[in-house]
Amino acid sequence: EAHLVLASTLENLAELHSIQGHFGLAESLFETCLASLQTLRVSFNQALVKITYGKHWLQKQEYPQALESFRQSLEISELTGDPRGQVEARLYFIKTLLRSGKLSEAEAAFAGVSDQVAELDSLPIRGQYYEVQGILAAAKDDFEVASRRYKQAISIWEVLDDPYRCASNHYFLGVILRD
Questions:
Q1: How far apart are CA 41 and CA 59, in angstroms?
Q2: What gap in Å lies between CA 88 and CA 55, rounded to an integer?
Q3: Rounded to an integer, what distance in angstroms lies between the CA atom of residue 130 and that of residue 149?
């Protein structure tokens, strides 16, 4: 159990360093964390760390690495039978496709996600879902739908007291309303 606590601490430190722009250190910490989880054979935690690592690559706008990290998380979540992990990895995968300008691939990947989101009945997943729907609608120049989805996401992030996600969605909403 001490090894899991250490891996979790490494992941948290890596995420903090990534947010602060210390990318090299963050990547080293992520790799150390993943290596320790691989040694422990703790797949569930590996899937979670792969999502966090993917978000790191997404922040750096290194889309191929982000897509690979989210794909690996999805694969692990499918093997372990974790539906929440599967949906979260899919949503980040789709978001990355959209950020990298791959609209048709994102639309194809989005098919079937709404059923999975409904089955989970998870407020954080629903918030992510609306956010990705907003990004997708904005990419298709459907600003009315994008606006509605961002507002739905904002209301969820407010309930969950997540100021970062609220601010991100307010920003996205502001961009489309400005246009």
A1: 28
A2: 12
A3: 5
